[in-house]
Backbone:
């Protein structure tokens, strides 16, 4: 389960409640429900185009339908749920073109974050980033049943740490939302050990560039990391669609 880390849960909370800077503020019932449903969505326990029934959610969390409706509106704002006339809330299903678009936007914003970190960071910032790199290396060599989800979680922590070091709450919020909107497809991009090894090399290059203050190179490498996952995931999605039509 990806959200066992408080770091990741805090990042999603920040994205779901933009503009509210106090991360220690108690969660409303609707926010608690939204986070649990978001966890189900990004971890594929609720598949794309699945209808989310208010009555079932109310029963699950033992609340009235008011907080459930509010939770669904929060998820709609985050792009994880689509509310349709006469059908209600469904898990957002993206076309290949929409997936490609989200990855492209994410790559540009992640490149911006990397360039800012390269231009301005402290020794403590780099120590934190090198710590993330060691975790990614450990996850890359894993061959157990959770290898893919563990690697994706490590990548997310790494990327969000970079965005936080860039010291822009809005940038971090945008990147967090984009990451969760593309998470299902990001998993496709790291589905083989060879792909994970290839991505690890890019992350190692990025950290070296950040440490040396090479802003232009860091921006290019950061964008390459996202685009590499995008290209691999899109190729698999297109192959899947071709197979369905055959």
Residues:
């Amino acid at each position: 389960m990806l959200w066992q880390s408080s770091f990741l849960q805090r990042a999603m909370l920040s994205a779901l409640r933009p503009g509210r800077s106090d991360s220690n503020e108690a969660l409303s019932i609707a926010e608690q429900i939204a986070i649990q449903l978001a966890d189900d969505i990004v971890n594929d326990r609720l598949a794309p185009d699945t209808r989310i029934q208010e009555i079932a959610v109310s029963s699950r969390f033992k609340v009235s339908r008011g907080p459930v409706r509010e939770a669904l509106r929060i998820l709609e704002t985050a792009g994880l749920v689509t509310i349709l006339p006469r059908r209600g809330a469904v898990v957002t299903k993206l076309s290949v073109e929409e997936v490609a678009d989200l990855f492209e936007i994410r790559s540009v914003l992640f490149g911006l974050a990397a360039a800012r970190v390269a231009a301005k960071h402290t020794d403590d910032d780099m120590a934190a980033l090198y710590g993330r790199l060691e975790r990614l290396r450990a996850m890359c060599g894993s061959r157990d049943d959770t290898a893919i989800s563990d690697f994706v979680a490590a990548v997310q922590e790494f990327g969000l740490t970079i965005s936080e070091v860039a010291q822009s709450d809005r940038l971090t919020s945008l990147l967090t939302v984009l990451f969760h909107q593309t998470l299902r497809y990001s998993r496709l991009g790291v589905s083989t050990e060879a792909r994970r090894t290839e991505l690890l090399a890019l992350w190692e290059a990025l950290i070296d560039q950040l440490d040396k203050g090479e802003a232009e190179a860091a921006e290019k490498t950061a964008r390459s990391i996202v685009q590499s996952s995008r290209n691999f995931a899109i190729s698999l999605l297109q192959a899947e669609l071709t197979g369905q039509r055959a």
About this structure: Residues 215-245 form the longest helix (31 residues). The two ends are 35 Å apart (CA to CA).
